[in-house]
């Protein structure tokens, strides 16, 4: 198993990416081989300095970097030797089994959508976020921004993909799936929800528990919460802001500590053929390590394969 | 000036409604006459018991009550002698200048939409909520659930109505208006936002500051935050749940105390000819008093008239 890591992406690259890789190699029972993509001389120096075990890494030189604020499509086209472009090339050609970057999010999404293929039958891939539940558990909200406008059939697929992810990665047996809405009863909501509800209700591949309201996001009513990317993105960023607000106001509580989304390492793109994980720009060693762990788990558990089977 | 109050609506009616009315009459500099609608014998007893000054109140008997869980349209039709039906009758016929109830929300909305008229030119009335800003200020979010699906022209009108409300009632000069969205730049978002942005940008009646993201809801970026009722309702209920969560987890902080939406008294319906205010079912004396104060302020400041002028 080989996992590709963009060493040039993120505010603290390549140092924190290298430290994350090192911690992964030190801590994992059966570490995958890491393919580190970036400026080779810089990486070589760090490898010596931090004594990274060289038998478990491979270097792939990338002489360009896509900056955080570059236009994604344009940058991918104009910088074929960038670490992100090379990473997706390696992924598409089968030289790595997963690809991780904390670099330009747009470029990562464009790369995931166009360099590797969507799973057979998937209308649109999706991105999700972990939601810290009040009872200590963990929920999954999707889509959180890749698809601002959705069709009912897409939400139905998000429900299946989210369900598989919750089972295989979050370890939730028979995850409860809910539809983000504005009322509890069937028939409530906007036109999209009204059309989506019957699809979810009839879907044999999920454990549908009905509509969710805003007050249910942090409660235990559902493990997998499905919505279009507009609503999901607003919920995600609002939840992220709670951590910042409690930090600024010096409100210390373990519950709000769990709103520090850096801890979760990154957002996997679901519905594509191979694991692609997008990290926060501010990712540090711990995030990079967690992203590599997540990628390994997604490969180990054959998450993509499971999704494909459930989507039939 | 006369303000109608449904004495039978809410979990603690009629006692808390009566106490709220009494506190209002005791505390207001120039109190309006209150028209108390409900079961006359019960109200008479409470008036004696609490020594409510009888020169400032009028009783209107209502022998029926619409329960919290009745179907709104059906209930209004089948219970013409209910306090809500009579209240709207008094409002439509000009016998009262505003109507307040903490009863069946759906019946209040249906009553507001069909018993009294929408302001000239208003496509759809709207309901809003107060948002506690991190800096101690107060924002306004609308629509929060009356219109789950919206057209760009509706959002443009919500922006104007919200702006007038923020100026006249919240006392915010030249309120900043923002569009709830998933990215900062013009052109971002779902199809609705993409079509709404240019309307807001060209609208001379508002101070448009651009797109907002989820993280801006509690920040100072905009005073008036505009969205369709689906997103707004989810944000509102999520915000309400934060108060409950912090209470349950014993997280004490004045900022989260401001998420106790009971304090705000009620939600006015904007875009109709006369003030209609809908209270929480759990309203107690303080909420009722605050709703009466709000109704008086809306009449005093000619909020509806101002909206009509700005919407031209």
What does this protein look like?
The structure is a homodimer of 312-residue chains. The first copy, chain A, is α/β, with parallel strands linked by helices. Chain A folds into 2 domains: 1-122 and 271-301, Isopropylmalate Dehydrogenase (3-Layer(aba) Sandwich); 123-264, Isopropylmalate Dehydrogenase, CATH 3.40.718. Chain A has helices at 15-27, 40-50, 72-78, 83-92, 105-114, 152-168, 191-202, 229-248, 254-257, 285-300, 303-311, and strands spanning 2-6, 33-38, 57-61, 98-101, 126-132, 138-142, 176-180, 207-212, 224-226, 267-270, 276-278. Chain A has an 11-stranded mixed β-sheet, sandwiched between helices. The two termini of chain A are 27 Å apart. The model of chain A has no long low-confidence stretch (mean pLDDT 96). Chain A binds chain B through residues 134, 145, 148-149, 180, 182, 189-191, 193, 213-219, 228-231, 233-242, 244-245, 248-249, 251, 253, 255-256, and chain B through 134, 145, 148-149, 180, 182, 189-191, 193, 213-219, 228-231, 233-242, 244-245, 248-249, 251, 253, 255-256.
Considering DSSP H and I runs of 4 or more, what fraction of the residues of chain A is helical? 40-55%
Mean pLDDT of chain A: 96
Task: Give the name of the CATH architecture of the largest domain in chain A.
Answer: 3-Layer(aba) Sandwich
Shape of chain A: globular
Strands of chain A, total number:
11
Counting structural domains of chain A, the number is 2
Give me the Rg of chain A, rounded: 19 Å
Could you name the CATH topology of the largest domain in chain A? Isopropylmalate Dehydrogenase
- CA-CA gap between termini of chain A: 27 Å
Q: Specify the CATH class of the largest domain in chain A.
A: Alpha Beta
Number of helices of chain A: 11
Biggest sheet record of chain A: 11 strands, mixed
Give the strand order of the largest sheet of chain A, numbering strands 1, 2, ... along the chain: 3-2-1-4-11-10-5-6-9-7-8
Q: Largest interface, per-chain counts? A: A-B, 39 and 39 residues
- Note the beta-strand portion of chain A: 15-25%
Quaternary organisation? homodimer
Structural class of chain A: alpha/beta
Compressed to H and E, one letter per element, the order of chain A equals: EHEHEHHEHEEHEHEEHHEEHH
CATH superfamily of the largest domain in chain A: Isopropylmalate Dehydrogenase
Low-confidence stretches of chain A: none
